[in-house]
Amino acid sequence: GCFDEFNRINLEVLSVVSAQLKTIQNALVGDLKRFQFEGREIALVNTCGFFITMNPGYAGRVELPDNLKAMFRPVTMIVPNLGQICEIMLYSEGFETARVLARKMVVLYKLAKEQCSKQPHYDFGLRALKSVLVMAGGMKRDPANSELGEDSVLMRALRDMNVPKFIFEDVPLFLGLIDDLFPGLECPRVQQPSLKAAIEGKLEEAGYKVLYDQVDKTVQLYETMLTRHTTMIVGPTGGGKSVVMKTLQKAQGELGLPTKLYVLNAKAQTVNELYGVLDPATREWADGMLSNIFRDVNKPLPPGKDERRYIVFDTDVDAVWVENMNSVMDD
User: Fold this and answer.
1) How far apart are the first and last CA of the chain?
2) How does pLDDT run across 157-171, given as a tens digit for each residue?
3) Is pLDDT of 61 > 80?
4) CA-to-CA distance for 282 and 163, rounded, in angstroms?
5) What fold is seen in the domain 82-181?
6) Neighbours of 161 (CB within 10 A)
7) In what residue span(s) does the Dynein heavy chain hydrolytic ATP-binding dynein motor region domain sit (predicted)?
8) What CATH code is assigned to 258-331?
9) What was the pLDDT predicted at 60?
């Protein structure tokens, strides 16, 4: 078994796990076919093994107890070679000039990391690179882009995936870097005229002044949500986050795509009340607030009806509650 993020388990549980592992290891050393485990006799497969992954020193993580550390052989991972990973992924997505494009992409992310302002939500790591590569692959296979060259497809993916996350001052800097790495390439953004008109109409209807930047942010949110199934809207109080989200909801409704928002505050209850909890005595699962909403959201729609459903965490993000969403939010 491979246990991911192992050191996020509570210390009390870890001590129980170490006792259970010791029992299994002793049975393996004794070359037993059957052994006593938690009061029951069970069969032992002699090829079974345990692997754990952990990030020491993160918030919401605990140090492994010494008796548990002694049971595992540590393997330290090094920083991955981004260029090689990019090249292989581009080849697998169907790009023929992958080597040159991978080099440009890694240089762009390195320069952006060095030259852009330092913001807590900026990420120029492997995860961010991977999602751009997957999007670029999807765009390359799209018949609508058959006339575009490979460098134009990658340039568009890099621009459309990254520009929405930059603060106002960093946008020209990033676009300048793209121009330097892809000189002479003119690749206009895909226009969304009907969506723009609906957004402007809904902003006027709500009594807001129609600003180009706010309309563009709403379109960016729409485009980001087409490529990612989890999106974070970041900004100061009064910055227009709720307006952008609710305007998009209303605009999509006007375009024949009803949108339902499930808004909750993740920090208004404990983690167990949010996600649910397994009763240690009866082994019965009790749903939490989020798991109830998830079940509701995943109920099938009646035939012929289409609806978008978004779960909105209107709250501060911290490792205590959001770490449990780690693999759910992965692309």
Assistant:
1) 23
2) 888 888 888 988 999
3) no
4) 51
5) Helicase, Ruva Protein; domain 3 (1.10.8)
6) 20
7) 1-242
8) 3.40.50.300
9) 60
